[in-house]
Every structure is written in structure tokens, then in C-alpha cells.
Design a protein that fits this description.
The complex is a heterodimer of chains A (341) and B (827).
Chain A (H helix, E strand, L loop, with lengths): L1 E6 L7 E6 L5 E6 L3 E7 L5 E8 L5 E6 L7 E6 L4 E6 L6 E7 L10 E2 L2 H6 L7 E2 L1 H8 L6 E7 L4 E8 L8 E4 L8 E6 L3 E8 L14 E9 L6 E6 L5 E6 L3 E7 L5 E8 L61 H4 L6
Antiparallel strand pairs in A: 2-3, 3-4, 4-5, 6-7, 7-8, 8-9, 10-11, 12-13, 14-15, 15-16, 16-17, 18-19, 19-20, 20-21
Chain B lengths: L1 H4 L4 E4 L10 E4 L6 E4 L5 E5 L4 E6 L3 E7 L14 E6 L6 E6 L4 E5 L8 E5 L6 E6 L6 E6 L3 E6 L4 E7 L5 E6 L8 E6 L3 E6 L8 E4 L5 E6 L6 E6 L3 E6 L6 E7 L4 E6 L6 E6 L6 E5 L8 E3 L6 E6 L5 E6 L3 E6 L6 H4 L4 E4 L5 E6 L5 H7 L9 H12 L3 E8 L8 H6 L2 E2 L8 H9 L7 H14 L3 H13 L2 H6 L4 H7 L6 H8 L6 H16 L4 H4 L2 H8 L2 H12 L6 E2 L46 E2 L2 H15 L6 H13 L14 H13 L3 H11 L1 H4 L4 H17 L3 H10 L3 H4 L47 E3 L6 E3 H10 L15
Antiparallel strand pairs in B: 1-6, 2-29, 3-4, 4-5, 5-6, 7-8, 8-9, 9-10, 11-12, 12-13, 13-14, 15-16, 16-17, 17-18, 19-20, 20-21, 21-22, 23-24, 24-25, 25-26, 27-28, 28-29, 30-31, 31-32, 34-35, 36-37
Classes of the chains: A mainly beta (341), B alpha+beta (827).
Protein name (chain A): Nucleoporin SEH1
Pfam family, one (chain A): WD40
Subcellular location (chain A): Lysosome; Nucleus envelope
Amino acid sequence: MFAAKSISADHKDLIHDVSYDFHGRRMATCSSDQTVKVWEQGDDGQWHCTASWKTHSGSVWRVTWAHPEFGQVLATCSFDRTAAVWEKEAGQNHWLKRTSLVDSRTSVTDVKFAPKHLGLQLATLQLSLLEPKQSAPSNVSSGGKVQIHEYSEVQRKWNKVETVVMVAEPVHDVCFAPNMGRSYHLLAIASKELSIISLKPLRKDPAAGGTGISKFEMRQVAVFDEHESQVWRASWNVTGTILASSGADGFVRMWKANYLDNWKCISVLKGDGSTGEGPASIPQNSVTSGAPSSIPPNGAATNGSGSSVVSHEPPARSMNIKRNTGWPWMDIKKDQFKLFY
Amino acid sequence: MQAAMHSVTRVVQDRVSPPSNQTMMFNCDGPVNAMDVDKDMNRIVVAGRQVFKIISIDDDQFTEVVNLRVGKQKNINLSYSAADVAWNHNDENMLASAATNGAVVIWNLGRQVKSKQEFVFMEHKRAVNKVVFHSSEQHQLLSASQDGSMMLHDLRRKQVSLTFKSNSDSVRDVQFCPPSHGYFSFAAAYDSGTVQMWDMRRPDKSERQFTAHNEPVFSLDWHPEDKNWLATAGRDKMIKVWEINKQPAQLAYSVQTIASVGRIKWRPQRRFHIASCSLLLDHSINVWDIRRPYIPFASFDEHKDVATCLIWKDEPHTFLSTGKDSMLIQHIFNDAKRPADSVIPAGIDISIHGDFCCAFREKNNTTSKTKESGSKLQMFRRASSMSRSEQFFSQASSTLSMFQYSRDPNDLGQDMLEFSPVYPCPHDVSMDNFLEMAKNYRLKGQTTEDLCRHNSAVASNIGKTRVSHMWQMLGAMYCTKTITKSTLQVPRTASVTPNTGDKQELDKVKTTLVVSSPDVEIEARADIDKDKKMQNGEISTGSDDDSEGESSEYEKNLANIASGLGHNGDFFFGDGDADIVPYSLGMSIRGNEDWTHLPSEAFQPRHDITGPTAPPERTYATDHDALLVATVESDTLGMPTPTDELELCEQYLNLNIDSAALLMGPVVDFTSVVVETIRFFAEQGDVQTSVSMLIVLGDHVRSHIEEETQENWFLSYIDLLSRFQLWTIACEVIALSHLPQVCQMNQASTTIYTACSQCSRRLENNSWVCDRCKIVTNICCICHHPIKGISVWCQGCCHGGHLHHIQEWLADNSLCPAGCGHHCEYT
């Protein structure tokens, strides 16, 4: 069972994102008050704020952790049209701004680190940061549709391979489930409804070689409108078996598939941790009628799952995870101050 | 000049169907720096480098009335290019403009000649940034210039009456105090970030001053109602509201915007609202509620370039703006974007342990509370807009909640149980099971059977019945006892297994029982049915197709044999609980179960299977099987497979034939169904089970699964283990993997490079002696002896020593013992 505990976040405005780090020891929150706070779980199980600092000159939309292989690194993106990368100084609770990406001409609404193997692949750049949203507004038609993009190493660019046509409403969040050796990918889309899309890579035509765009068999596994209004965020657990979604109705719902691949709600939790029964009596809280087309889908899914990488050779199954050269990779000069796990 | 060539009246219509107020646009044919309206808000003067026009405001359109940039081409000098413009509040014909050449130009619209220029003051030495008329003294014009001075011009005498000098600091903005608050006061903003209050009667010295910003202040605005509030804004992207009645002036509110702020203007009748436009980058005009300084209350995006000037139309729902994009726009509040409505007010994330954290917008119905704090102006507000702004303000906070998972409510602690709500949830949300299994699984060191038995016990301990049973079945299938007693099968097996090359492999092959696929299915089902008489969909799923796909010729042979024996019987092994029921696929599983509690297993076990069972205990349901057993010897010996393997097998068979059990099970090839099961677990996201089974079964199934898939599973599992910081287990898995790509993970990055502690040079050939310094490198800083054994060293300064020496040292000191001054960290 779940026990809810309210934390006094002391953010001065809305909190837009929470994010656990790789090992679940730390958590970061970001807010419209332009700050990011990092929380750590003490030995007593309580969460303490260990760092709080002003990151941007606008609302901070999202915060995300890099793989700890690269050190304690956070990325944030903001209304102020920049994305920033922050690194914790070893032994101190200072977070230093490592870079600020100012390419965008509009609000940067999402930021994600590439999967670890891509990061190491681009080790010369320190971090490979993929910002799907920065380019997305131009090529996404009004109303949020979700597009799946794939990186072609031969062409050295991202190609659109798929458009999710099932979703017509503006999309607030997309989230790939950790692959965990499945032969398919699960994509959760938080829109007006919560949809789960399964993408099964189809066997590639060997004649096409590595240049061909991989095809996916797309299937809508589940659609849920239990939130009755907008679904804001969705998040998978570490094995990709449980999906949690938070909606404008103020509830968190957890979803799970049974062995027959039927997705069902397994738990409904009142989001603010207060005692409240039943979602029926919750007043609708100013759900925007004007669809926020300003929030483009980050479906330009350069997302976390390794699916987006295509290898040179025509693979027997097109799902080919690129390998790095090995375990944490160390350059004595460059990395000597970094904390490795 | 292009602008001059335009006809005097020009109509640009924005929208045709008009309510009284609507968004209107007008193209001024050139970037506009400034504008002002006459006292009745009927006409606008817009001014820029190449624009100087009077435009009338009609109900539904802007109409150009006068173009002041007229005359012969050569006469149009810099005086016609205005940085700022002001309309006299009392004389509707009088305008003043500020030019970049330091001129302050007075225009008289009443002049009958084409050129309306009346007089030019050339007192300022550098560009004039701002001109402003006194609100009631119609002949007093104040100008502020880059040269650091402000001049009060007397328009009747046509001369400068007063000069206010700052300390050589460019004046960016100057504003008279609203007449109700002070007749003689004005405030000036400077490049240095200083704001000064002046009294016109004391031109020698400013009344007071304070540093408002660290960078140039571009704009300031007196609050129209509260005489103690002054807003300033500047290049530091800040809008600040000062309480100037305090000494020193106190910062009451501040708003951080995303770009340098060029102009600010309080919204009339809204105490806390202020509009801003930026100097560069941001093209929108934002209206902020200073009580919620992070998200604009409203945003207007009509301009295609930065807006330069904005003026409210004396009521809070309409304002005019001009921009570098040449446009003059009348904005209506109804058309505003509400950025706060489009933000995502919720965040959620699941930690790897299954706890999750979520942030939600706080829903407090504070309308009544905020009503009290509102000003008396509330009576002017329309109900709808009030609720809007109050709602905006009240939504500005989030709650952050942790949802901690616990199987046992008592773990949560008493206080949590008492004070916080508890939600039921299935157990598999947590990753505890995963950890338990990862830690306790045995993957090597014993026979397959023992490993399976152990792992089965591990799984059943934590309630993973399905996994537990699967392990048990695997143990039974690949039981070594079976092999020794089922050597009768060996020849057949060997003959049909193409990759058996030698005797050694033959031993392994012996463990493989071969039978045609339908029987396999039956076998698997039977075992389950024994428990619950319920068909577990998973095992039969697709096994028909796949095993057929994988079956090769020899399997067909076997199928023939099997069918000849009448394999439609049911084979059992186990406790001999041979109650055979007809199976119906997937029956009763999809019943009307309460879905809020997903069953973690497809079926409920009636009792545990007590360990793997040996073939002698097998019972046979049909007589045909006995027939098979009886004939098996001749069958196998007579099988015409002229291979070496067969010969080997026959030899082996002969050796062991005595020990062969009398009752032999049918020839069963579990491999395809086992492979299917392993795949099934992976598809379900349980890569742990897949990988563990893969390792334990080893060669039995390895060749039947694509290497890429296996690799993918291994990498996923290893990644998962490292997320839980189970490094040892991860390494064990890596080591046990037979995939070269995975095994290599343990071999990469195993080199440790050392550097000389004196010269920081990397030691290439000899890791003990530095070539350059000619010294032995690993000398303890404390005892100065070479270190053998455990040592620590600081990666920052390369100094270190014996572990106990350093420990002693660090007990009293924080700096490096070598005296290099480094704050050593031993991590």
C-alpha cells in the first residue's frame, strides 16, 4: 500500500516537474519560481532539500537527471528559451551551470538526456542532449500529434518514422517505457486521454541496408479517460510494467497490464496527499479550453529508449541497442574530479 | 521618403465586424520608437526614425490623419526622426518630440502650413531619450538626455528654464509624478541603475536617490493610485516595484522577465498589474501580476518584432502598442493569451523503488480571503475579470507529495499511519521482489536441477508463484536424474540434434528430451492443470506456431513416431495426481474479477509442487506409452541414422542400458516451450526471470534464441541491477553470460593509470618509477617509505600514503600531508 506524505516544497509558484535520479536517492523539483530544488533522502527516510538555486529567468518546465556515469548532472529547460545543464560540485552542494543552450526562439518545454549508450558515444561532447521540442514546433501541425523520430547514423540526422494518428488532442507528455528486453516499445501519451501505444519494430528489409527507415507496427494498447480532463504527466516505473499518470482531476492513477496484456487501473491516489474519497466531487479547475498548442508534443521521440538508434548493419531484428565500449569510462585528465559510481 | 509619399488619409482595416473595442492593427510604414495619445484618446502620434504620423482611433480602425514628415526632401533632417514623442495634456495641438541629435522639437498641429514644426530646442549635447509634458502646466516640457542632464523647457519663452544635472549619467527615462501625488516631483532613471527623485523647485540636487538595478534602468512608472509605489525596469530583466515612502526605498515586489525590459506601464484600475515590453528578443507584451511574479498574467503576441511603447486607454481592458515591426496595435484583454492556463501544473515520477512523488496545483478556494485584501477598486471590477485575476493568484502554489510504498503498514511508522491517508495497491508496484530475487537467485555452481529448486524456493518465498512454478518445471525438465535414467532416449536425441559434435556435447544433449510440439504443450498444461485445473494462457500462447516454425525434419520424424504411438494421451509427471481434465484455453481467467486488484498470477496454486520429480515416478495415462517403452529399444537401435553421433550414442546406450528405467517417458522436447516461456517473461517486462533462466539452463536453450535478443535481455538486466547498485550481482551476470559482447563488459576499463605525484606526468612503462623525476612514485607522504599494501591517495593532488597513516593525519588535519595545500578528498 501507499502512504502519502506531504512535503513542504517551499516553491513559490507551481511545481512543474519532479524527477528521481538514476538510483532513486535524489529527487529534483522545478517550479515556475525559476528555481530547482534537489532533495535527498536521509537515513530516517525523510526527504531533505539539499540544494535550491535559481536556474532561469523564466518558469522552469522540466528537470531531468543524466546517467550517473557522467557525474551528478541535471538539465533544465525554461520559458526563458534556454536549456541549461548543471553539475554538482564534488563534495559540495553547489550546482554549477555547465552550459546554457540558447538556440531556441521559443520557450523550451522539455529536455531529456539521451540513453546512456548515446551519451558515451558522444563522449567528446560530454553530454548528448536531445531537445526534441526546440525543433518540434516548426514541424508539428497544430494540435499535438506525436511523431516518432529515429536517428540514422548513415545520414547523420533524425528522420521521422512514424506519426501516431490515434492522438489528436494536444499532448502534454510522452514517455517511453524502459525497454527491458521486450520486442516492442511502449509509449505513453498524456493528452486529453492517456494512451498507451505499442511499437513493434518490423523486420527490416535486408535489401534496404542500414539506410532504410525502420517500420513499426503500431498498436494502441489502451486508452483511458478516467482522469475526465487533461492528463498532465505520465511516468513509467523502472521495468516499464506500471504507468502512473497525473491528471487535472487531481488524482494519480496507476496502470498495469495483466498477463493478457489488458491494462487496468490498479490504484487511484489523491494527488495532494490529502484525505479525500472518490474523484467524483472534485471541481474542475479551469481546464483550458484553448488548447495549449504552445506545448508541442515532445513526440519527436528522441526519447530515452534505445529504439531510436539504427546500426549500420542490417540487423536481424531492427531493434539493436548500441553498445558502448564498456563500463564507466575514465579519462584521467578530464574526469579526475568526477564522482563515479 | 516612402512615408512622405503616402496620402494623408489612409485606411487600414483590421476586422470588419466590430464590437466597440476590438483588436486593431495599423501599419505605420516604418519602425516606431514611441507614441503618445492626446488627452481625449482620440488621436495617436507615432514617431520613429522614418515615421511621424498622427493617427486617429475610430471604433473599428485606425486612420492616418496627418503625416508630419513632410516638406522638401532636403528639409527633412534629424529633427524629424524621433526617439520619443509627447502630446501636450492640455493643448491638443501641441506635440513635442525628442531627436537623436539632441534636438527637442515642438510641433503645432494648428499651423496652417504643411510643416507643423514650430520650434527646435538645441540645448542638449547628445541624444534626447525622453520628453514629457507636465500634466497641468501646459507650457512646461521636461526632456531627458544621454548627456546626463534634464531640462525643463518653457514653451512660452522658448527657452530652457531649469537644468537638472546628474553626475554625468545618461538619463533613460523621466516621469512626472501623477498630479494627485505631487505637483513638482518627477523621477528619473539612469544608465547606472540609479533612480532619482527631483523636486522642480530644487534644481541643484536631487531630493533622494537609490540604486534600483545593477544595470541601466530603461523605464520607470509611477503607480497611478498608490503614490508610494514606483516601478522600474531595466536591462537586468527585472521589473521592480519600490515603496518610496520608506527610507531607504524598499523593494516591494520584483518580477523577473526573460529579456531586458524596455517599457513598463501600470494597468489602470488594477493595483497589482503592470504591463511590460522587452527591448529585444521577446516580442510579446506581458501583463504581470506582481504578486505572482513568475508567470505573466496575460500575454499579447501580436507584434512580430519587439514592442517599443505601450499606452493604456484609461481603462484596464484596452491598450495600444507600437513596435519595431511598424505596427500600431490596439490590444483587447479578451484576446490575451493566459500563459498560466497552458502550463502543466503537475509533475510525477516513479522512483526505481516504486515510490513515487507527485506535484499538484494546490486547490484552495481562497476567493473570500483575497476579497478582503483587495482594494476598494474592486467595486469597479467586473465580476468575471476579478475572478480571473483572483483565480490566477490563488493557483500559484503546488503541493508536493511523496507516496511511499510499503507492503507492511507497520513499516511506515506510527505517525504516518495516523496522519496520512493510505492507499491500497498491489505488491508488484514495489521492486522489493526484484531485489530479493536478484540477491538470492543462484545462477551457477550446482546442477541445473538444484539451481532450479533453489530459485523456485526463492520465488515462492516472495509470492511469485508463477515464476516459482516455472523454475520447478524447468528443474523437472532438465533434471540430471532424468538423464541418467533416460539414456534410452539418447540415441534418438543425438541423432536428431545436429549440433552434437562430440562426446562431451553429447552429455549435454542427453538432457534434451525430444518430442513433437503438441505433446510439449500438453505436458506443460498438464502440470498446471494438476494444480488448478485452469489453463494458463501464457504457456500455450503461440507455442504451436513457433515450435512448428522451429521444428526441422527430424522433429517431423519424431512427430510421426509419436503419432504412431497415439500421443493423444496425456502425460504426467509429478506427484501422480492424474486427474485429467479437458482444457479450455483461457477459461475463467477473464471472468468478472475485481480489476482494482490485479491478480499477480494467472491462477492460484492449490498446493506447492514438492520438488522436481524423477522419471520413475512418472505415470502414464495411456497404454500406448507402455507400448512405446516396450518398443523403445528396438526403435532406437533400429533407427537408420548413419552418423557418428549415433554410433557414439549406441555405445553409450549399451553401457547404460541396464540402468535405464523400465518406465520411460515419451520423448519430449521442452526446448521450444521453454524458449517461449522465457520470451514471455521478457515480453512482460520481467527480464530478470528471463535472464536467470537463460543462465541456469545455459546451452539447453541458448541456441534457440537470437543472440541479439539475448544480448538485449542481458544488457537490460545488467542495467537494472546497476540501477539498484547491485554491482556484484551485475558482474556475476556479466561473467555468466556466454555472449561475447556482454562478457566484454567486465574486461573493458580495467586498466588503472598512474601518474607521478611530483610532476603529474602519466607513468607509461614503469608504474613505479617516474622517468622524468627519477623517483619512486608510491611513497607515503607521512613515513616516506614506498607503499606496499593498502594505500590511499587523493585524486586531486596525487598525494597519499598508507591507509592508516592518512587516517591518522586526517583525524587532525584537513590539508594534504604533503604540504601542497590541497584540501584532500579520498573518495
